[in-house]
Structures are given as structure tokens and as C-alpha cells.
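quick one
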Amino acid sequence: MKKKITVPEIMATKNSDKKVSMVACYDFMSATLVNLSKVDMILVGDSLGMNMLGMNGTVGVTVDDMIYHIKNVVKGAPETFVVGDMPFGAYNGNIDKAVENATRVFAEGGCDCVKMEGGMNTVPYIEAVVKAGIPVMGHIGLTPQTSAMMGGFKVQGKSNEAALHLLETAKAVEAAGAFLINLEGMPSGVAKKITETLKIPTMGIGAGPHCDSQDLVWPDIMGINDWVPKFAKKYADLRTVIVDALDTFADEVNTGAFPTPEYSYNTKVEGFDED
Ligand code: KIV
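structure w/ 3-methyl-2-oxobutanoic acid:
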């Protein structure tokens, strides 16, 4: 049985041979499968807005939605470190609100840390939540919660000036007390420089091979959606496998091929003969 990795162990992976892996998943069933695997961490990400709730972004996801999904994942993955995502609006403009909502996500959800997405504006909230005793993972670069400001889900840090700003933001997130930082959607060279500069580990999604660790999203790894982003590797083609299984079930129901006696309770009941 695997042993849950801890915050100090995650921090100690910096400059070591160990690369931590994390999968974003959102429900009990997928969490039980991640728990059986070698994957170290689960992120209950607000990408559940798109992948579980059919939204076209993450902005509509609430703190209550997050807590509901985090609780179910935690039940399914007792040996896996679980990160609970702070959704859009959970701390906007108010330090007390940030601490209150992070406390709810951490304590009611039962996760092992929270993830706080955003650039320089988010730094004071990170600092307050860390001071409240909650471990924080930062998240900079392509930040889907502010995709409207970015003009869509766009790779960030593509000019020298923008890359320098990302580097300064990463340093500020570290100084605020984050123990780990997610780098999403940025050129590999920018993620490399950030990784070399920070003392805390970086985790990359769409940020190239130089990060200290890597994360991907369950539906992308499993090939469930009909589209995957350029950076995501499909490790399975479950969309085809699942639809084929459903088609076969429907065909067998239609032809009467299912259920055969082996799938039936065949106890003879007086007065209720089958033939
Ligand atoms: O919500 C999410 O799944 C995320 C990852 C893309 C890092 O934030």
C-alpha cells in the first residue's frame, strides 16, 4: 500500500531525483483508481466546472461545489495527498474572506492543502492563508479564472517582459509562504528559469520538462474528451472503449443477447416457472 506524501516530503523533492506526479480528478470513483496507482497527488481542480458540471469555464464554480467534490475524492484516496482548489471569487478583494473560505475548503473538504490561483494580486491572500496554518500551492501563468482578462486560454510569458513578470510573480508567491507552485501554460525556458530560481518545487502543466514535477487532468490522460490540449498526453483512449462498451450493451439488450442465464437469478419458484 502506498504511503501519503507529506508537505515536507514534497518540498524535499526540490533538487532530488524524485519527481512528484499529480492528477486532477473530481469524484470518488476516479480517486479510488488514482489511490491504487503510483501517482503521488490528486488535485480537485476547479476544472471540474468543465469536466463534471458542463460549464464552459471555471468561473461559475463555487466554494460549496469544491467542498462537495473534495470530500468525495478524499474518501476515495486515503493514501494520496489531496489538493483542494480555491475557486473564482473565494477571496476577491478581502483577506478575511480568503482565510474563511480556505479554512472551509481545508477543514470541511478534508484535503491536505489548498491551491490559490493568480498573479501578484493573489499574493496577500496567500500570505494570510499560510499564516492561518493552511499549506498553500500557488498557481501562475495561464490562470483559467482570469482567462477573460487574457483573451482566452492563452500561453503566458511569451515576451521577455512578460516572462520577467512571471518570474517576479513566482518569487512573490514563494515569499508569501507557498510550499509548491503550479506553472501552467508557459514556454519551457520560462518555467526552467523559474524552477532554477525558486527554492520551492515547481509543478508544470503545459510548462515543459524542466519543472520539478508534473500534473495533468484525468479526462486528458484517459482520453475521455474529444479534444486534448497540445501539452496533454493521452495515456489511454477511454472515450472509444466506453462508447464501444455502451454500444455493445445496447445492441445486446436490443437483440436479447443480454442477459443470459449466467447473469440471472435462476432459483425455481413454485408457480413461477420461466418456460
Ligand atoms: O483546475 C485544474 O484542474 C487546474 C489544473 C489545470 C492545474 O488548476
